[in-house]
Amino acid sequence: MPYKRNPMRSERCCSLARHLMALIMDPLQTASVQWFERTLDDSANRRICLAEAFLTADTILNTLQNISEGLVVYPKVIERRIRQELPFMATENIIMAMVKAGGNRQDCHEKIRVLSQQAAAVVKQEGGDNDLIERILADAYFSPIHSQLEHLLDPSSFTGRASQQVQRFLEEEVYPLLKPYESVMKVKAELCL
């Protein structure tokens, strides 16, 4: 497909990974009939299988490094996807806010279910944008929480402590493991195609 950026290299990684996973059958077959007796079929198989597995894994890692070095993140695409899905994700929070404001949970659930289904139909059947929030703002039933909607739709409120956990994991686990290899980590992956 012409619009894809890394199809050949990504497909190569996938294909080689399948091959690497299939290589486990050689030593399993050898072990199943060998009964821990060293025979020539053991050493011949090991010379082929181990070398091939390491070379394949190395090729996969080099290719993945080459792909990731050219990785481009499109924040506007991410924002659009979040805008499309976040209103649906926020429905439980909207229901809880309505209950705190004195609304009946069952009534609120039914009203938001109907509005969500209508908004989903616009997205799925008409290819339109998600208009669930506009529908909620237009419904007088939800007026007690209209002023809270912006806060309820803050994407960062859906990630919890993920950013702190990732940062802590990097600092306590990943960076210390990478430290001894800093001198070789600046190497660029070059592929000879």
TrEMBL record:
- Keyword Lyase part of the UniProt annotation: yes
Recorded hits in Pfam families, A to Z, give: ADSL_C
What reaction(s) does this enzyme catalyze? N(6)-(1,2-dicarboxyethyl)-AMP = fumarate + AMP; (2S)-2-[5-amino-1-(5-phospho-beta-D-ribosyl)imidazole-4-carboxamido]succinate = 5-amino-1-(5-phospho-beta-D-ribosyl)imidazole-4-carboxamide + fumarate
Q: In which pathway does it act?
A: Purine metabolism; IMP biosynthesis via de novo pathway; 5-amino-1-(5-phospho-D-ribosyl)imidazole-4-carboxamide from 5-amino-1-(5-phospho-D-ribosyl)imidazole-4-carboxylate: step 2/2; Purine metabolism; AMP biosynthesis via de novo pathway; AMP from IMP: step 2/2
Which stretches make up the Adenylosuccinate lyase C-terminal domain? 86-170
One GO CC term of this entry?
cytosol
* One of the protein's GO biological processes: 'de novo' AMP biosynthetic process
Report which superkingdom the organism of origin falls in: Eukaryota
What InterPro entries does the database record attribute to this sequence? AdenyloSucc_lyase_C, L-Aspartase-like
GO MF, one example: (S)-2-(5-amino-1-(5-phospho-D-ribosyl)imidazole-4-carboxamido) succinate lyase (fumarate-forming) activity
Question: Could you tell me the EC number(s) of this protein?
Answer: 4.3.2.2
Keyword annotations from UniProtKB, A to Z: Lyase, Purine biosynthesis
In the record, the note on similarity to other proteins reads: Belongs to the lyase 1 family. Adenylosuccinate lyase subfamily.
Assembly and interaction partners: Homotetramer. Residues from neighboring subunits contribute catalytic and substrate-binding residues to each active site.
UniProt protein name: Adenylosuccinate lyase
Q: Organism source for this protein?
A: Rhinolophus ferrumequinum
Provide the organism lineage as a comma list.
Answer: Eukaryota, Metazoa, Chordata, Craniata, Vertebrata
